[in-house]
Design goal:
The chain is globular. It is mainly α. It has helices at 16-44, 59-86, 88-94, 97-131, 138-143, 155-173, 187-207, 224-240, 248-275, 289-316, 322-348, 356-378. The chain has one domain (16-175, 182-386). The longest helix has 35 residues, at 97-131. 69% of the residues lie in helices and 0% in strands. The relative contact order is 0.16.
């Protein structure tokens, strides 16, 4: 099952054979909600780039916004890659290489083309016309538009397609041999893995600091050590049935470690930043000692959260309501279309007589709700429902 796939089974939580997949669906929905909120927080004050921003200047609001975005960035896309990869190996086994490749090109390639050539110009026009006040028609705007290759938020889909095709190539060259299953990693091994990712991320960011984007595909290569690592771990975990091997105590351990990294270590890093008068840029890369500290914090936090969520959800989050099932089916559509909903709402809220931090409290829930409602309608459209 990929992010793009519909729920594979009927949601009867009394059947253990089905409930073991429901927690993955539930996690997928939660991560999708975080994606929408992540971009809403960036719109109203957190660091980061977005189509339209209306940022608050109040430090008391910026700090928690920044923490929210930093914590999200540490894990949510990495977990998306892991979940997608976890079902890639089994999907390839069920299909021929040609059929698997054709399916991925359709399910992932078509949204990329649609976003770049249809949706992206619309998003840019909304900002240009209604936020910046340029009095031009859409056709006039298109006459001077030159950003046709722009995957926007679908950089993830482009990366997932690339990773999937590379996996197909490697799998065709090196056929996996039947062998005894590898034992699931211990908590200590997972911590070592996080440390390794932290060091690799620091080294990569010497050349590609956070914020550096590979255009036109939109890859922030400073984060790709984790993405590649988690995609590969998803393949290995699937082949060795790792997710059924962890007990709830391990999940709780990683939950406590996550809380420690967020509520103890992050404030310490912020204190160091303020006391040394360090700029945000020094935490982004280029070999600064601050970037080494941040890379380790980010990877420890991210791996701990991912481990806690996967393990605890496997044991505790196995139920799903009818609403949850509908949201799971709509998740990929939300990922594609949430910029349209969020940008429209935030542009409409420009004139509201309140600080942007308060707008966040209104626009955030509306953006999540509106995105799921829109996607829920789109997945009922014949033809469209075969893609999203």
């Amino acid at each position: 099952m990929l992010l793009t796939d519909p729920p594979p089974v009927e949601n009867n939580v009394l059947n253990p054979a089905t409930s073991k997949l429901l927690y993955i669906d539930n996690l997928k929905v939660a991560l999708t909600v975080l994606v929408v909120l992540h971009h809403t927080f960036i719109t109203y004050g957190a660091p980061g780039g977005w189509y339209f921003t209306d940022k608050t200047t109040h430090t008391g609001a910026i700090i928690p916004m920044s923490l929210f975005v930093a914590v999200n960035q540490s894990f949510f896309m990495g977990l998306f890659f892991f979940i997608s990869a976890y079902f890639t190996a089994s999907s390839l086994q069920k299909k021929s290489t040609a059929r698997f490749t054709a399916d991925r090109l359709k399910r992932l390639g078509v949204p990329l083309v649609f976003y770049s050539f249809i949706l992206s110009p619309v998003l840019s026009y909304i900002v240009y016309r209604f936020a910046e006040g340029h009095q031009v028609t859409y056709l006039q705007y298109l006459g001077g538009f030159d950003g046709w290759i722009d995957f926007g938020v679908l950089w993830f889909v482009a990366a997932l397609l690339l990773f999937s095709l590379i996996f197909v190539l490697i799998n065709s060259m090196i056929r996996p041999q039947s062998q005894q299953l590898k034992k699931a990693p211990s908590a200590f091994s997972i911590i070592i893995f996080a440390a390794a990712l932290g060091l690799i991320s620091y080294i990569v960011r010497m050349v590609f600091p956070i914020g550096w984007i590979l255009k036109p595909v939109g890859f922030q290569l400073g984060h790709f050590a984790q993405y590649i690592g988690m995609f590969w771990m998803g393949i290995i975990a699937s082949r060795n049935n790792w997710l059924n091997s962890f007990d709830i105590k391990t999940g709780r351990l990683f939950a406590w470690l996550s809380a420690f990294m967020i509520f103890a270590v992050f404030p310490a890093i912020y204190f160091i930043k303020e006391s040394t008068h360090s700029s945000i840029e020094t935490f982004s890369g280029e070999g600064h000692w601050q970037s080494l500290m941040y890379a380790f914090w980010e990877q420890f936090t991210g791996i701990f959260i991912m481990s806690a969520l996967l393990i605890i959800a496997k044991h505790k989050w196995t139920g799903q309501s009818a609403v949850g099932k509908s949201m799971s089916r709509a998740a990929f559509g939300v990922y594609i279309f949430h910029p349209l909903v969020l940008i429209s709402l935030s542009v409409a809220a420009i004139s509201w007589p309140m600080d942007p931090a308060y707008k966040l409290l209104i626009v955030g829930p509306l953006a999540v709700t509106g995105s799921f409602l829109l996607s829920s309608m789109l997945v009922k459209v014949p033809g469209v429902n075969k893609i999203i």
